[in-house]
User: Fold these one by one.
Assistant:
Number 1:
Amino acid sequence: MAKIHRYERAFLILSAIMLVVFLAALGYAAFGMGLHLPTRAGQIRPEDVARTPPFDRPGVREVEPGRWEAVVVARAWGFNPAEIRVPVGQPVTFRITSVDIIHGFHVDDTRINLMVLPGQVSELEYTFRKPGEHLVICHEYCGAGHHAMAGKVIAE
Amino acid sequence: MSAARANGSIVHDPSGFALPSSQRAAIRWFVYVGFGAMGIAVIHGFAQALNYAGINILTWFPGLQSYYQGLTIHGVFNALVLTFAFTNGFLALTTARGLGRPLHGPLLQASLWTLILGVLLSGWAMFSGRASVLFTFYPPLQAHPAYYLGLALLVVSTWLLSINLFWSLSRWRRENPGQRIPLLAFISVATYAMWDLASLGIAVEVVGLLLPWSLGWLDGADPLLSRTLFWFSGHAIVYFWLLPAYVSWYAFVPRHAGGKIFSDPLTRVVFLLFLALSIPTGFHHQYADPGIPEAMKFTHAILTFGVFYPSLITAFSVIAALEMGGRARGGRGLTGWFFKLPWGDPSLSAQVLAMLVFVLGGITGLINASFNVNQVVHNTAWIPGHFHMTVGTAVALSFMGIAYWLVPWLSSRELRGRRIAVAQSWIYFVGVLVFARGMISGGLEGMPRRTFMVAATYSKPSWELAGVLTAVGGTIMFLSVILFVGVMLATILAGRRRDPGDIPFADTLVGPAVSGWERHFDRFGIWVAVTILLIVIAYAPFLVSYLPPKLWSSGFSIY
């Protein structure tokens, strides 16, 4: 290799160290602190959603003491339920799917930020630390009524 | 132990070169079609920026049925037509000049006409309201078959062009056995080699799944598989947008600045790293998707951080080349050289300002790639804030900067309105910074992207200032592009005729080794094999565990 200028060598080494440190921090945040991304969590045919548990009964319930499940069905252009009431301080697992086209599910001011695909179950666990009301927006374009597709999560 | 080195030229024959006039004309029309599409796209972009401040001018657009129809046109004409057309023309020229030989004439014509047919077909579908599915066209939203066919032809046009480049390279090799590939041709061909592999995902998606589905030959679509194939190509495509700008930053901007390319071997390494690492990174666009195991997403996060590395090398090399130029012009001290750059040259001002904006584009891109940090910004207005600083400025403003010498060269005219051109680059620079400041701050507050805010059933007070900045910045960008189009038209129609001479490529400080292991850089076969291996590592676990396709979704045209 041609001789590399010493400034350049230093720059390249520092750049590599920076990227490795960033990655290590992200890996620790995800797998050490439990700030997970959604993973593979099951498949469901769009036409079977209405008769397949848990999506046959959308809503919030306690699945075991201290653990909650929020089941949401997305369709053009709304969420069922549109108003989701969850407890503060206890882990809630959101389970969401779509019966028609791709939607998004973004709970404002939280890291609940999911793509919702027909055919797939989107799943994320989250614990609300403070009571309050959060706007929920469908944040993936879903046709003519996209900008009217919203709901809310109330932590109480 | 340094190997023997050739002189620092990046072309086969620095003394001169004449391209057949029919090939020059084809390249000229590629560039005109690209900027023509941009001119139409930014009119819609202007309306979309105003939308974020609650101002609705969509009613001024005759025949426009929805915000999303205009947004589809804005995305396709900017991100696909401008980029493919300009790159086809620009890199055809750089390859021909690098090799010092003409290209395959009929293939070049075929590529141009395929592109034009693709623009007409997809354009008809979009303008008639039959394809308001945005430029990402995620199924099961369904467009008219003409839209998918038109987009497929745009990709086929790039394939015909790359066949042409490889054909020309192999002819050159036969004519010049044992010689190193001239750097200018090497980096141009490497760009197309990457894109040929990258575009396979979108080709399988569009031709194998969506087009037959839209014609009723397939019962359903698989939304997750489609998104995965789309983003297989969809992240690499940003490097297909960016690398032509890098070709210019490495090979031409040092000449504008009066400096030299830092190093021939390092430049080759950068482009080979982009070839190998651009593709196996697509899951970082799907961090929020269901159905993809988290560990596979993390694999792509690591590779995405890897592909950031050649951009960091580029930052050093290109700034070093600029500094050489600035010091040769009498610049002193740590920063004095920067102000001594020839800022009166619009090709230089546009591209150096594009680089400055790209620093912010790169930082925000690394944030997007940052695994769980992405959950804060995914699908918010932050994302268009980011990519208007990358493809929307680092690429688009660089293309405009290139056009300030390329269009006069192609049309044998002198540039008209040089001072307006310099002002145009600064106006765009200010505009995009204001625009991106608005989008990014709004995105951090949860303001969504791709949304007709004027009619949205929700809002937050913190989006107000963000929306106003977006609208003001977008308006400034729009005015800047009007100035650009004006300068181009004045040049083409009323520029003084002149002999175009040669194109303004730079020399390198450190030339290519004529012997030793560096010669392996030029064996594209090896690097393509490495790339394929990385693609298999990145995508095989998903495909093996997921296939066959789940064709469960029927089409919806609810737009």
Note: The beta strands of chain B are 261-263, 508-510.
Number 2:
Amino acid sequence: AQTTVDKASLLQYVKFQSRNFENILIWGGGPDSTPDTVYSVEYKRYGDKVWLAKAGCQRTTQKSCNLTMETGNLTELYYAKVTAVGPGRKQDLKETERFSSLQHTTIKPPDVTCIPKVRSIQMLIYPTLTPIRSENGHQLTLEEIFRDLFYRLELRVNHSYQTHLEGKQREYEFLGLTPDTEFLGAITILAPMWSKESTPYVCRVKTLPDRTW
Amino acid sequence: EFRFGPCRVEGVVLSELWEAFWAVKNTLQTQDNITSVQLLKPQVLQDVSDAESCYLVHSLLKFYLNTVFKNYHNKIAKVKILKSFSSLANNFIVIVSKLQPSKEKDMLSISERAHRRFLLFRRTFKQMGTEAALVKAVGEVDILLTWMQKFYQL
Amino acid sequence: LTGGVAVLPAPQNLTVLSINMKHLLMWNPVAQPREPVLYSVEYQGEYESLYMSHIWIPSSRCSPTNSLECDVTDDITATVPYNFRVRALLGSQTSAWSTLERPFNRNSTVLMAPRMEVTEHGLHLVVKLEDPGPQFEFLVVYWRREPGATEHVKVVKSRDTPVHIETMEPGAMYCVKAQAWVKAIGRHSTFSQTQCVEMQGEPL
């Protein structure tokens, strides 16, 4: 028997949200959606004919789905779509724009340890691992993905002045500082070729008192 | 600067090209509803050797200048798209004008390999209707830029 | 007059003044007693003039404008020759187009030596450079003032924030000069005046 389906507004938007190549599909319920509306996710590579159902995101009431593993090839582009089914055979379907994680991902603040000494502050930046794997299965860091990646470190010395270091290495030290004084550090990751810049990691740190007198 | 094997190209700022494309990306790509076909497919751009790259980028950019941009132009309604195309096209002219693919005999096999890749791209283009192919080609400029970026030295 | 109808004259003497990659198109006013005259600016890159010469693109900032100049920096996004044309608008009247005599290429821009401020803070040699725009990087050359001194070079991208160049030895004199570099046109400016500072030796 032929069952008729009512086109309804159960979906507002469907889009990828990507941070450090963690690619999450998110969607918003439309005006006709209700708490028991269920959603099913499919995805495919641009250029492929067949859509693939994402296991774990079928007939779910959730409004997000982790597609990181399915969209992990940096040179490929992807589409995803969500089918929503509501009470009374109501149905709606929306598709994402063409998604490229290289173009779309944003960079999270770096992981940093700020170490105060008497007349200096040392800053150690840890590499950021991503879910992306190379052909031999090695997990890639942001530095390996973005060849031009560098770090910018700013130290606010007092209200009117800040000093600044930048480079590709991971260890830095601001020297010649006043003992027993508070400083504000801000460390940012930049990948200029892709016009990407993270929000800063901020550390508030006080140099040690000088006990040599 | 770009280094496509022996071919060097200065005076092009890659971020200017990206900015021009990103300004119109969604407008262009949503016009292409044939998502099951890709012109610049992996067989065209993957594992291109440095030596091949100069020949291939020269062929692709000339095709975009002579065929894609030229014929897509009369479909452009919005000034914003006109500006983006102008920026892309004029920077492609700078690149093409500075590429000097070698015509040496010993490079023949390499240039033929690059030409086969280009023919694969053009065959897919021709198999589609002209309108649909033009829309798809302009929507794939990001695939082209992503590949070219591998040869960009800061 | 043409057929008894007053014809609005076209603007004359179009020129481009380009300094530090800021490009200003200028022209002479069209004298009209009663009402203010507006002007409309359009441009064409080498691609348009080669492949589709009928295509002119309205300028981002001056379509139209009541000024006698137009900042066309945002319109020029490639290092190729650009044509510009301007016409006058008065009510319903429009003048003929007046076109720049010779196309303009941004590689002819005048690059000024960067304005630089050198200070010392405790043991830090710190340089602050003006920010002429996103296209600019700076080559900072510094040395300790002593016989047979060695010059050191640092490339600086950040602008408008003081940059820590080096940590110095107390009591020594250090000198700095800088030049601007523009990747898009592959050219650099002349060096700035050399500035020297003495390290006081007290920490910040």
Note: Chain B is about 65% helix and 5% strand.
